[in-house]
Specification:
With 194 residues, the protein is an alpha/beta fold. The protein contains six helices and twelve strands. The N and C termini lie far apart (32 Å).
């Protein structure tokens, strides 16, 4: 059993905590630098990326988040969390923590009313839930694309940082969380897209 921190400043952290507990992990609502430092892994959930960034700055969490990622512990960033960890953010431009070599466009799939569900490309049937989702517009050479939708990357990984444009915590499918935080954090439990 791992102790996984879920950044609990704003956004959909409770659903991630439930998913982690279903998998047998202890979910810790991370609100302080010490919470992040003591975690065996971290989830940066969906929500409002600019609000989360402001709260991360206000409570002095960025150095702890960076240190956790640099230590090799697993990080899962979903939707707004993906925006926080991207190297470059546009539409509009926004500062980020920059833990993964991707560029993203904010709210690129539309507003809240444009939210939708889909299934990832390929035969694995990975369900996808998009809510005011960002779009990955550039993927660095060392970033692995794990899942696509209509040929566009929606789930990517660079070293120990995995980022999703969608909300895996809102489906009944645990493969994303198991891939990131399972017994072998590098074990892919769905087919990697070429």
């Amino acid at each position: 059993m791992k102790r996984i921190g879920v950044l609990a400043m704003q956004g959909g952290f409770a659903a991630h905590a439930r998913r982690l507990e279903e998998l047998g992990h202890a979910a810790l609502e991370a609100r302080t630098a010490r919470d992040v430092e003591n975690a065996d892994g971290l989830v940066l959930p969906g929500g409002e990326s600019s609000a989360q960034l402001l709260l991360i700055e206000r409570f002095g969490l960025e150095a702890s988040i960076r240190a956790l990622a640099e230590s090799g512990r697993p990080v899962l960033a979903t939707c707004a969390g993906l925006i926080l960890v991207a190297a470059e953010v546009m539409s509009p431009r926004q500062r980020s923590i920059g833990l993964i070599d991707i560029a993203v466009a904010r709210n690129a799939y539309g507003r809240q009313l444009d939210s939708f569900e889909a299934t990832a490309d390929g035969g694995e049937g990975l369900p996808l839930v998009f809510i005011r989702a960002p779009r990955i517009v550039r993927v660095g050479q060392t970033v692995e694309v794990l899942a696509t939708l209509d040929g566009e990357p929606v789930l990517v990984r660079q070293n120990n940082v995995t980022a999703a444009t969608f909300h895996p915590e809102l489906t009944g499918d645990t493969r994303v969380h198991r891939t990131v935080f399972g017994v072998g954090a590098r074990e892919a439990v769905f087919q990697t897209t070429p």
